[in-house]
## 1
Amino acid sequence: MGRVATSLLAGATAAVSAAMAVDAARAADLPVKKAVPVEYVRVCSASGAGFFYIPGTDTCLRVSGRARFEAGYIPVQNRANSSGDPSQYRGLMRMNFDARTQTGYGTLRAFLRLEAASRTGVFMASGTQQRVGNAFPALGQDAFGRVQNFIVTEKAFVQFAGLTAGRASSFFDFYAHDYELISSTAGSDVPSTNLLAYTHKIGEGWSATLSMEDPNFRKNPFYAAAVGATGTLPGQSGLNTVLVTAPSPVILGTNASGTASSVVFVDTVQRSRMPDFVGALRHDAAWGSAQLSAAVKDVNLGGFIANSGLSALTPVPGSASGPVGAGTAAALLAARGLTSGSQTAYGWAVQGGLKLNLPWIAAGDGLYLQGAYGEGALIYTGFSYFTGTYASQLNPVQGAPFVHALADAVVNPLSGRIELSTSFTATASLLHYWTPEWRSAFFGSYGEIGFRRGTRAAFSLVNGLVGAAAPPTGAAFAFSPILRDNYQIIAGTSLIWSPVKDLDIGIEGTYIGTGPLGGRVTDASRPVTVNGLPAYTEKRYDTTQIRMRVQRDF
């Protein structure tokens, strides 16, 4: 039995060994599973501070943002017509995404910026942003015109081998309110427009840029003596209407007193016919920067408004009473070289800017000097930046006693031709660090806008047909603000405390003074007349604004 047991045990051991050998052979034929390596986020120091590699790619990404609170106060004397809102508030968020990849052609970059805000108060709830579609208003009885929200693609562009394409800051701009909280001085500042540009580096520190830019963000409207819009109910704002035409009259005939007895209307809503072309020559060095910019843009109007004189006359807003035959109207207009009614003129602007770094005063100190001149290019010169843009006339501030004429152009009622306005601005801004934690800015600007001599007088001839949209005839003509040349003075200062990096707590005060260039204008806040003349007139309007800010960048 011992021998049998021993034999059985030996046989079992051999069988197990053979089976294990077979299993090992089979296992050698199967794929071996390895542990997946952990992809750690790596710092991308080549692209700068804060960049990291997107796992699994050679693209570096930096994520940053901003949180801001603002509160402001601006005195308002006139509380009629829903005015009387001295206080204002805003909460804002910003998110930035900066992606960069190194290629054989240089850096390939994509930059995205999203901004959203809730803002209240008449001055903070910007009519400019609402008119251009960057914000939407509340519609409640107490909130309309006072509460506004926006979420906007502030930046979305690609840069590659000198090319910039997408939504970016205009290459015309230079200072662009770099040192200011309120951004109130006159000067071009279009931080978001659609463009396609090429920049070529010329030697050390020099660059030249040619940019094709979206014209819709640089068109300030024609002055139109009548506005065709859907009807509004009492108390309903015109912002609720849809503008379909902006009629401006061309005189066909006058009566014995010389005023217009019949007119035809042309549509002054500007079409998007060609891009704006911008060129900039820039130099950057240790001492600072300098830039010379130029721009050309089209200023255009549509044709004659249907049934307003070129066919059997059907009344339109402000149309003359009494028919004017189509043949007679066409002959009168053809004698002035007007056939289709559609016209195009070309506006232009030039700007020079200089930035000086002043480390010999204190680290971080700097001085900007900038000046601009233009024809038919008000947004390029930036005359209306504080008052507001995308409107042909506005009050300089809420409750002001008169309006500013801000049109890029007018159609002369006598000639029927486009006449461009002229404007210029000059700006200076100084930043000084009292200590590494405390700094102040001191800034100011001066600007003027003017219209061709005789244009106001020509518009007064249609007052009997379009009413207060045109200056009155007679002695009251001298006091009308319509199409008056005017000026604007802005000055301000700030104090900002930065107790830790990327945290600003500051306050800024601004003064604005405006008025006509010569003479006086009717005080619209006190509409009292004596023998047809205004009892109260003004030659300037002065006001101030204070705003504080708490802002954290990361």
Note: The longest strand covers residues 87-103.
## 2
Amino acid sequence: MGGFQGFDPARVRDLAGHLESVAGSVVPMHSQLSQLLQDAAADVAPQQVTRSPELQPVVDRPGVPMATGAIPISRVYGIPTGYLPGPRTQGEALAGGPLPGSVDPFLRQTAADIRSRCDRLEQVRKAAPPSVELDAGALFGTEPVDLNGVPKPTDGPEKNAAWWAGLTPAQREQYLYLKPEALETLKGLPDDVRRQATRLAYFKVVPYKIASHESGGSTKFTLGIVELGDGFAFRTEQISDGSYRVTLISNGQAGLKAGTKASAAFKYEFGDTWVFRNKAEADKLQADLKELLMWRMQMSHGMSDGARIYAARQYGKLMERLPDPRLKVKTAGGEVSGAIGVGSVTPGIKFGANFSTITSTIDPGRPSVTQSRDFTVEPSLTRGNVVKGDFGTVVNGTIQVVRDKNNPDPNTNITTVRLIQTVENKLGGTFGGELGGKKVGVSGSYREGRSHTHVVTVNVPIGADPAEQAAARKWLNAPAPASLASPVIPDKPPAPDADLISRLAHDRGQVSAVSYRGKASELKLGGKFTVEGIPFGFEATAAEKGDHLVGQQYLGAPDPKTGRRAFVPLG
């Protein structure tokens, strides 16, 4: 963070609060003055009690409501001549209108202006490198600039140069530290300014999710201790770069369940993601995908050959008009879970591991393939029988290596290594139960919960240097605990003997810390029966969840003098 001396924004904010307090006491004072003048006018009538044009409306017709509305005001304290709306009494006219009435909104507007200037000053201070000394007085004295009021890259070098030359140093600092990505493309700006803007903009994070919504369903069959299941889900995400992503997920599992306390399962998942520049196109595709799923079910479970043939035709028409997905994900993995019942309290824990291949054409000129390993630990606590309270924390760590799809050589094609850690705190409640006996019965439950999730991403671009490529390959084989532990934030210069990845993370790593709040609901319905001692079961689940962004920041550029990096708020 940049620094300044001799200026304390917190105390300046206190001053703004005092101004508002004074403004609040002005109106009662005006009312008392109004009553005093009206009493005086009654005592000296028919003589004129005042010749002041600002006070005349009060004594012209004392105590009479001004139902026709317009109350003239003169230019006082910078307030131009105009009219205040009615109806109101003469006392209210003075309290909200002519001369004294202009003081109250003036003081309140001044307090709001002081706060907005302090806000902008703090934004610049947090975004500037730690060793930069800022002129706080000049920043405070400058009205906050419109960060979107930057010339277009097509405006030409001369116009861009004239715009920059017309800015004060404090205005330039606002644009440089808060909107560097807009300056780096402007020809005509001084070369050193564009170089500095390019460096500052580089460390702003790669696109991240702003909000998401997901709905889906699944079915699961039980035969003895064997469980088989499959499901689907639709996910829509809004991304920070303004795009929208729609994902169709198909998944399944096969596993073993020992009673109600322990289970193990192998899982797989396929996902196709389409990327759009606006929400309307994303919504249209999601509607097409839902219709596609309906026709596919008709093809599999149609009541007649004619119905299946018709469904196949409709399915084919939809497939022809679907665009190609930009992301394709294949995931295989497993999980084991166990629980110990202690009265009405059930502690449990779940471990999971997944291996994924992600093919991306989001950048058509540079398609990529990502190898991803992620590990999950989920301790939980359930309390209650029919009505249950669920508490838990999910820690997920992901290690990724991104490769250039156009380069088949695995020793030279790595472009990025990435560590993602997600910590999700969950709190929810479940209502449900079973009807029937041990051999035959039905069950159902409804669960609703809230979550707070914090995601830290360390994204490190890798160059063609053989040493960097070797370090990146080693990264993919890092042990699971390294991903589940708190990620090492490269905010300090690495030690001389630090490994190459640590040095690269500090020098060029893009780091974000993003927080979300979410909610989820889940409805389960199931049944069971026993034939010759062998239990059979069926369970259907419908689920919905969503989340939205509540906080985001990124790790700023290394300070040119100290090498330290500091988190910078976004938005």
Note: Confidence is low (pLDDT under 50) at residues 61-101.
## 3
Amino acid sequence: MASRPQLPDAYHKAIDRLAGRDIGARRSALLELDALALEGSPWRQSVVDAICGYLRAPEVEGCLDREVRREAVRVLASQLRALPEESGETLADARPQQSLQVDLSGAELEDVDFSECRFGEASFADTLFRGQCVFDGAQFAGDAQFQCALFASDVSFSRARFDCWAVFGRTRFHGRANFDGALFRGFAWFGHGEESIDEDDDAAWEAIEKRRAIPWGELNEDDPVWPRDVLVGEYQSWEEGGDGARFNDEVSFRDARFEDGAWFWKVRFGGGSLFQRAAFYGQVHLDHPSVDLTAARVAGADAGDEQHWPFGWTVSFERGGEGNEDEHSGRLVPDRATHAYCRQLVDPDPVVRLSGLRGLEGLGDAEPGLRQRVADTICEYLRIPLTFDVAARSAAFTGDQAQELRVRHAAQRVLADRTHHSADTHWEDISLGLSGATLLDFDLSECHLGYGDFSGAQFYGTTTFEEALFSTGVDFCIRGTHSGRASFHGDATFAGARFGSEPWNMRNLMEWGLKGCVFHAQPAEVFSPN
């Protein structure tokens, strides 16, 4: 790698003033750095590094410092849009090697406009975005790392181009998120899982320990380490990482193009999920009932690529010139037998949601082969984040809130009634994917199931696993860690429960993850062997 040219004295003096306490000196230092970068393009990366370092430093209290930080973001954006005058290129056809590396991980940014900016490697991991946030038309020539970032308001990535990996694992979107027309040339990673770290990689673990995670602070949830979960490479597969991205409001991927994988496993969608006219290539995991795939296409996928679509959608394959079906290209169309029920389950009207729930229940009774898909869809509904405090007194709930709790209780009852060992119509070996779900008076007593994933789940009211059987096991934390712990905000009983082949007792506390959980009331039969 070529060394950077020697920096002039003016650069070093500006850096000293930027780190000082005088607000006026900071402003003048930013302007000098901006001018210096425009004078000599070889110094632009050093200027960008200096501004990023200033923005990563803890914010000093006071309005004036916040104004200087906004100015720093504006200067940074101007550098990321600028091209060397002698290149004769436009922003759209700039070469990747001209892109600048940006590291704003852990920074707190307010009112950012990075529209039409060119990034090389870009790290916004653990970054807090407040106020306006725009990346419209931005280009990322290297990996774009947004894992564990928090967008406190609306954000737009309309027409953004990601040439390498776009990593949004465990990113939180509190406002609306717009990815309309975005181009993902590399893997689009919004879901569960992360790249793993070797157990003996001391430098990597030291960096993890120094990370300044954004306080979790989500309504009805209380796990401070949930967003910091990482994988231990020797013991965990890449599917076993932390929670997926969380969209509290509507997210739109209309006309987006996913040229590699589109990974949305364990994403939590709180509003509409719009994928109309999107194009998918390669591996896909997108299975929430709120997803709208109208006019979306599958094009050129390899035969070995797994694709998981929401229940209620199916691929209609196109026919080739000789009348043969093309197994790798098609369009997403509603499945007439199931689509209506799934859409009803996420309808704004609680009466319609109850109707969809009953329709899915009847479908599972009639079609044994669809029972796991029905259970998965109901679990995805229960994973939708609630927008009000469930610990409040019932008298404080509005009519809509009370109705929402009624539908959720009904959804829980469908799962329990159909897996109870004495049920007339017993759904056998059903697995429950309830990671991150908010569950109320959850009762699986005497139910016989396959596997249960309750990592990060929040149990309110009375929780009962008495005499429950999970034939292939259950997890109440991310396996092998204390991250993603479940919390019990009321009485809980596990008397006579069997998780895997063994009865509940002290010896398997760690194996099933309950030792890392939080109990806000004394649990029955947890710390006493059967």
Note: The radius of gyration is 25 Å.
## 4
Amino acid sequence: MGAWRFWWDSTRRFYKNWGSYVALIFSTNLVISYLAIPFFNWVLEMLLKWQRVSYVSYTNIGSIIIHQPLAALGMVAILLAIIILVYWQFAFLLLGIMNIFRGRPQTVRAVLRSTVTSLTGTSPSTFLFFIGYFIVILPFGSFIFTTPLLNKAKIPAFIVSYLMENPWMTLGLGCFYLLAGYLGIRLISLLPLMIVDRLPWKTAVTRSWQQTRHHLWRYLWTMIVTLFMIFLIVTTIYTLIYVAQLQFDKTSFAIAAATVNLFIMEAITEIIICYTTAIFMMLIIVCYRQDFTLLRQQPQYFNEAPRLRKLTRASVAIGLLLATSLLVAVNLVYLNGLVITKPIMISHRGVDNGNGVQNTIPALIKTSKEHPDYVEMDIQVTKDHQFVVMHDPTLKALAGVKKKPSQLTLKQLEKITVRENGYQAKIPSFDAYLKAAHKHHQKLLVEIKTSSAYTAADTKRFIDRYGATLLAHHDQVHTLSFKVMRDLKRLDQKQFVSYILPYNLTFPHTVANGYTMEVTTLNDQFVDKADRNHKTVYAWDIDNTDQMDQMMFMGVTGVVTDNLTEMQQEVKSNTDHPSYAKLLLTFMNELSLTIATSNPHYFKVAVTASA
């Protein structure tokens, strides 16, 4: 059977029993999103509070293992519990959809028992193999199968950007994705063989490898066609809603139309998510059974009386109606009084769309004319323990010098010319950069970068030399070093210090005034909790209008950007000329198929701009 025939037959199967499929998938996602994930977040927060761990990041994971072993063991236990839950969710959906395939001979309770049995019967070696499979394959295969739990597995954008800057690393990353995709297709029958047939993982791997031999391109093409059709369906629906809202915006009932359209979008998105999950589960089942004609083989008897079918569909419709209505009610609360958040604009490394060499005075002066609220820049200690303005750990990229800033004196560094974006300039001292910023009435967000040469005395030297000046000119400081942040606040409590977090695992509780968060894992829950704790949130790096819109609707305090002028124009457009159609368009970006159940906060931020 061809790829197009698979899509058509699977869609027909979904349509015929849509009540059963939506009830199964939607209820499972609700349990995961609103019970399991909040529970794990609460347990993690209580664990860290009990063990007095202020934050979790790659910068302190070693310290946690050494000094708070109970916290480390607890986090490992939570991770294992999450992996078990992912395994259970996949098993429950697989067995549940297979049960619908067969005509629902089993009750939901019986399917749950089968799922538990498959878990309890799993050998330690099989479970260890699944952990490896989970880490390597599932996060990269999320375009096929995704859950609210798998959506937590994300690679921060700055890591991907860093890898993409090096040709060899880019090649390695590409090869890794290709290998993960190849293994994902060759092992597409693996989990059903382990869950349904309860085969040991070695036997399951061998069987799946044999089953997919000579079928790689067929399965890949089927996936591509299915994804294309889902994309086409979603795009068509969203386009119709957007075009309709453009017309409604010209009327006096634009706000009412926007609210109704949000309701429609949310309801349709939930159904599309259930549809997508069901279709790809069907693909896995037919690959596992090696029989694409299964989709045309209707069960002789479907164990669902007409009254039960009506009851199931009515329950699903009422559930979707209530869930969506609750979200719309949240919209109305925010539509009746709040305005969109206008974030602080921060120029990353003192440049605007490559208008000079990063962290140099000529670029600072040129960028200051664009009137950013702050210019973010980086300082490091030199060999003679002075402060130089430099981001990279070495001089190779900008100056072609195979030295670290800490290996040269300040005078030696000031003689070096750096080149970027077709410009060139001398490396400035922090004193010179600070003086130029104050001369042009430009406030700074100073990032203190540490190295093996950096000591606690350097932090004290920084405060003694610059603390009063920074306070007088309302400059701010942030750093990736928890120790430096803590020492800065201890030495000068009035100093504004933000702690840089590259990953959002759990909300930190520190003495910092705020957090500079990498955008990949930043969400509105983090922003809301920061607001309740009177902490600021700066998002980095925000370099396109879609991200800018999302951050504005999310309510972040400020954004760090390389494209200052473009982002300023986007902010002005959103605040001076708000459009309900544009708000819907932004909300459409949030309602992607990687979100298995939408978060009610998305409604809040999407409509705040309308007030």
Note: Confidence is low (pLDDT under 50) at residues 334-339, 593-611.
